[in-house]
Amino acid sequence: MQLPSVLVLNGPNLNLLGTREPAIYGAETLDDVARMCHDAAARLHLEVDFRQSNAEHQLIDWLHEARTRVDGIVINPAAYTHTSVAIADALSAIAKPVIEVHISNVHKREAFRHHSFVSPIAEAIIVGCGTQGYVLALERMQTLLTTKFAKQVTQ
Ligand code: DQA
């Protein structure tokens, strides 16, 4: 039986996790986060494809590919959250659940981080839970993809 597949997409500067403003983003590297996601996926019986790019066009191209290839998307669009209509449009074009993740609590930070172009499209938003937010997002995604109850609630 094929496992439900989830694209975990990371936007610009998240390749610097672990060294970038650790007081805000923590000490784990992006490789640590990828490992956490793969461990969670094994436990949750999901298949995870974990990717990061600093380039808006690359993120959009991966989202286009994902339209037919994956069952759900977990995305930390990083700074593009607050600026990119193009990424929001690409997500809108995918008829699959989207969960938005932010490591930091963006609402406790500068005002320009309070607006997200992605949130109106997202089934769920996880902010301020550190890198654990990715695991929480995968747990919720598993519920959305596998239970009738969750599908009814979010319709
Ligand atoms: C972030 C928050 C964004 O405002 C910021 O630009 C990031 C990371 C987070 O995970 O907390 O790069 O998405």
From TrEMBL:
Residues the entry annotates as binding substrate: 76, 82, 89, 103-104, 113
Site, as annotated: Transition state stabilizer: 20
GO terms for biological process, alphabetical: amino acid biosynthetic process; aromatic amino acid family biosynthetic process; chorismate biosynthetic process; quinate catabolic process
Domain of life: Bacteria
Keyword Lyase belongs to the record: yes
Positions annotated as active site in the UniProt record: 25, 102
Name of the protein: 3-dehydroquinate dehydratase
Source organism: Paraburkholderia tropica
Lineage: Bacteria, Pseudomonadati, Pseudomonadota, Betaproteobacteria, Burkholderiales
